[in-house]
Write a structure and sequence with these properties.
Blueprint (H helix, E strand, L loop, with lengths): L8 H13 L5 E6 L6 H9 L4 E8 L3 H9 L6 E6 L4 H5 L4 E4 L15 H18 L4 E4 L4 H15 L7 E3 L2 H15 L10 E3 L6 E3 L12 H12 L1 H9 L7 H19 L4 E8 L7 E9 L2 E5 L7 H26 L1
Parallel strand pairs: 1-2, 1-4, 2-3, 4-5, 5-6
Antiparallel strand pairs: 7-8, 9-10, 10-11
Helix pairs in contact: 2-10, 5-6, 6-11, 7-8
The chain binds nicotinamide-adenine-dinucleotide and (2S)-2-hydroxybutanedioic acid.
């Protein structure tokens, strides 16, 4: 199957034919915001994923360069670039999974909610495109404030008549990745052996690590619990301050987004027992959206697990989180309904 530059349409088609003839199948994935701080390393990681057969890279700037660069990687996914709103439809048509890291990041002193005014409109436009061009795709929403952008996306899809709550997932994987890392540090073990459920949402006190449910079963002193909770809830701010105006977490986020997207693709493929935390439409508590452990399958979120027993510290944390979470959800919903 000879081909050189994958940006050349003939060679892309030849490449796709080769894959079909070879019997290899895979999923079609689009990244919206692919030229950004998260988008670029995420594009690289998705190009390395053997479950991806076609990778569409969309942005309003710089996507041709990123596409040319990524397309030289000798992995099997076919890469195509799309630039500007007039190419959004082509970027989305036929996609199985759409990952959205488009939008502005925080600077020191800002909250995630301070990004609402700009990112709400970006997410609205992109979700309108999804409703029109790939209404059955799984959507992984990364753009902040996730506690509001997921309700925005849900409202856009409802308005378009395409809403399937099982297919819309706010990405909170970075909270789990951070929690696994700092808990492993305290326990003195390999982070790959650790699993910390992180529930609630994705901003400050709405990020609720369930340290009483850590695997392997572990106990922590009150000082350790305070330290770990603070590191997990403020991990994003730690990075924003260290980057001193140059943005927020990009590399650890790309890693987390790629890990989460891989779980979604394995679910779509029919693998059993794929369980991750995500911010989804939920009935586990009284709020309409909530992050908790979900089982991923062929249709997206196939099961949402109950929270399990919480200790007094976690129950108090949940009560504090609910108020902020409810306000962020309501803000997202009214942005579309107003
Ligand atoms: P960035 O500024 O480096 O990149 C954002 C990209 O989005 C840019 O390339 C920009 O051109 C593009 N973009 C802007 N408007 C667009 C539009 N209408 N359509 C398509 N693309 C558009 O920012 P970043 O560091 O990659 O962060 C992106 C977002 O992800 C931010 O909102 C950030 O807060 C969020 N984030 C979320 C998590 C999480 O855990 N969910 C973690 C880190 C960052
Ligand atoms: C994070 O948790 O790193 C992201 O939500 C980015 C941010 O603004 O903190």
């Amino acid at each position: 199957c000879p081909f050189n530059l994958q940006t050349d349409e003939t060679s892309i088609l030849r490449r796709e034919n080769c894959r079909t003839k070879g019997g290899s199948s895979g999923f079609k994935v689009a990244i919206l915001g692919a030229a950004g701080g998260i988008g670029q390393p995420l594009a690289m990681l998705m190009k390395m994923n053997p479950l991806v057969s076609v990778l569409h890279l969309y942005d309003v700037v710089n996507s041709p360069g990123v596409t040319a660069d990524i397309s030289h990687m000798d992995t099997s996914a076919v890469v195509r670039g799309f630039l500007g709103q007039q190419q959004l439809g082509s970027a989305l048509t036929g996609m199985d999974l759409v990952i959205i890291p488009a939008g502005v990041p925080r600077k020191p002193g800002m909250t995630r909610d301070d990004l609402f005014n700009i990112n709400a409109g970006i997410v609205k436009t992109l979700c309108e495109g999804i409703a029109k061009c790939c209404p059955h795709a799984i959507v992984n929403l990364i753009s902040n404030p996730v506690n509001s952008t997921v309700p925005i996306a849900a409202e856009v899809f409802k308005k378009a008549g395409t809403y399937d709550p099982k297919r819309l997932l706010g990405v909170t994987m970075l909270d789990v990745v951070r929690a696994n890392t700092v808990v492993a540090e305290v326990l003195g073990i390999d982070p790959r052996e650790v699993d910390v459920p992180v529930i609630g949402g994705h901003a400050g006190i709405t990020i609720l690590p369930l340290l009483s449910q850590v695997k392997p079963p572990s106990s922590f002193t009150p000082q350790e619990i305070n330290y770990l909770t603070d590191r997990i809830q403020n991990g994003g701010t730690e990075v924003v301050e260290a980057k001193a105006g140059a943005g927020s977490a990009t590399l650890s986020m790309a890693y987390s987004a790629a890990k989460f997207a891989d779980a979604c693709l394995r679910g779509l493929k029919g693998d059993a027992g794929i369980v991750e935390c995500a911010f989804v439409a939920s009935e586990v508590i009284e709020l309409p959206f909530f992050a908790s452990k979900v089982r991923l399958g062929r249709t997206g979120v196939e099961e949402i697990y109950p929270l399990g027993p919480l200790n007094e510290y976690e129950r108090m944390g949940l009560e504090k989180a609910k108020k902020e979470l409810a306000a962020s959800i309501a803000k997202g919903i009214s942005f579309i309904r107003k």
